[in-house]
């Protein structure tokens, strides 16, 4: 009979309680975000449950009280037992209120819900080896994915990622042609277009509902005169002569990333640049046994690998492919120079060129 180590068992159960507490918080956090409770508390706090219910638009005090106690137990808001008032600190507001904060996480909670919604389809694929078509696993997986990545794009694309590329910013300021391949709902494309008004942008994505959303976003942001979105797979793009091609968090999702790399070479000018933004990862699995790797491996199991296996070739790189593997894929398309320009807490940026 195996002898149990009671200390190890208790430690592991404690970890599981913490993990389950986080999982249990997903629906209550999402309700609080949709009903504006976090924002109302930051605006009016410290506040009693009754005050918060009123500030949030006349919600039920009993529900709000239980919700607020749940968030206090989560550590997501603060509770003063003496006054029985709740409050939200500036640091907590960075996560739950400030939508342009680099750590705003509404999209992350929505992504968790989308993964749970798609659980049965992915489970079926475990048995068959087939994939799950992008957008089919959950009602609005593409919306949640766009919202999840938006804070990182808002705080990095123009500020650090593009400036790290050799000679690209100068071209963008003067007037460049840019293709944003795998643009999703268009957040990345529109951010670039606003920053560089002399350049023109085309966003491409194989998911037509995402393209519909992207065109709507372009109109609402007033950039539809020089930004367009087209439904097309990476290898089907017909326009050529681009100064810059960007691919944000999508190369590893493609069924044929090598075919994509080969086609990016064809649509770029000879002195053009391909910027590939991918989830940060080490080259070996043991390098990724950390909180960020944990998030990405789980998301990759539920979204990235099923998406890739549904497509032609189905290479299934996964979200933790690592720089060495990605560079090998990019080189296979004929790019002679590949270098990492930026490493952040969640992403790494690769620059690919056809010449030195």
TrEMBL record:
Domain of life: Bacteria
UniProt domain S-adenosylmethionine-dependent methyltransferase Rv2258c-like winged HTH: residue ranges: 29-95
UniProt KW keywords: Methyltransferase, Transferase
GO terms, biological process: methylation
GO molecular function: methyltransferase activity
Residue stretches making up the Methyltransferase domain: 175-287
UniProt protein name: Class I SAM-dependent methyltransferase
């Amino acid at each position: 009979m195996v002898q149990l180590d009671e200390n190890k068992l208790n430690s592991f159960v404690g970890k599981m309680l913490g993990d389950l507490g986080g999982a249990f918080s997903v629906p209550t956090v999402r309700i609080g975000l949709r009903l504006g409770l976090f924002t109302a508390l930051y605006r009016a706090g410290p506040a009693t449950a009754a005050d918060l219910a009123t500030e949030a638009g006349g919600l039920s005090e009993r529900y709000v009280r239980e919700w607020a106690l749940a968030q206090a137990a989560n550590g997501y808001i603060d509770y003063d037992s003496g006054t029985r008032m709740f409050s939200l600190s500036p640091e907590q507001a960075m996560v739950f209120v400030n939508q342009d904060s680099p750590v705003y996480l509404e999209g992350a909670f929505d992504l968790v819900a989308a993964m749970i919604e798609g659980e049965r389809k992915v489970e079926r694929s475990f048995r068959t080896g087939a994939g799950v078509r992008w957008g089919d696993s959950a009602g609005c997986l593409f919306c949640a994915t766009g919202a999840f990545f938006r804070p990182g794009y808002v705080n990095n694309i123009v500020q650090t990622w593009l400036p790290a590329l050799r000679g690209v910013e100068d071209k963008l300021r003067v007037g460049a042609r840019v293709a944003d391949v795998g643009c999703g709902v268009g957040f990345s494309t529109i951010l670039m277009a606003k920053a560089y008004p002399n350049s023109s942008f085309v966003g491409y994505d194989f998911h037509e509902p995402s393209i519909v959303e992207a065109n709507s976003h372009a109109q609402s942001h007033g950039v539809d005169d020089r930004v367009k979105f087209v439904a097309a797979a990476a290898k089907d793009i017909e326009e050529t002569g681009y100064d810059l091609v960007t691919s944000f968090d999508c190369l590893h999702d493609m069924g044929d990333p090598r075919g994509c790399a080969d086609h990016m070479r064809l649509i770029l000018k000879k002195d053009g640049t391909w910027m590939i933004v991918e989830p940060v990862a080490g080259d070996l699995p043991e390098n990724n046994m950390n909180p960020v790797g944990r998030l990405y491996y789980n998301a990759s199991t539920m979204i990235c690998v099923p998406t890739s296996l549904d497509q032609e070739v189905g290479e299934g790189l996964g979200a933790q492919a690592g720089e060495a593997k990605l560079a090998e894929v990019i080189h296979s398309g004929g790019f002679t120079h590949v270098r990492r320009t930026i490493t952040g807490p969640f992403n790494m940026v690769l620059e690919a060129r056809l010449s030195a």
